[in-house]
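User: Run a structure prediction on this.
Assistant: Running it now.
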Amino acid sequence: MTLPIPSLKRALRVLPLPASDGRVGCLDCAQCCTYIAIDIDPPSRPRWAADILQLLDHEAVSVRCDEEGAWFVQFETRCRNLADDRKCRIYEHRPHICRGYDDSSCEVNRPSQTRVYRTRDEFVGYLQRERPRIHRALADRR
């Protein structure tokens, strides 16, 4: 006599693994769900540096340069699918971009050399120190 095998076709809820070895877990943080970052040109030309200065004139906008030299504009904006308990309301169907995040590679748990500029003055200071030619070119335009 053969016994019927139960169907395994029902959707299983997938939860992140609990954080170990002192890491901050996704459900304790959810920082990655509170902003959007988009690649931008590095300030290696006066025009691109001027563009960054214009971006920094907006509230809830910052500019970052990561340890690999990539530049991003970051918009502080909470995902509509993030619940108050820091769980994703659409976790099983979340977008591809979200699937790449986990607590082992996030910015909270990974030591980083990322530089963040939140104001025009912070970025101008960077230009004076690191890109004096670009800084002079912008100053000459004013």
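The longest strand covers residues 35-40.
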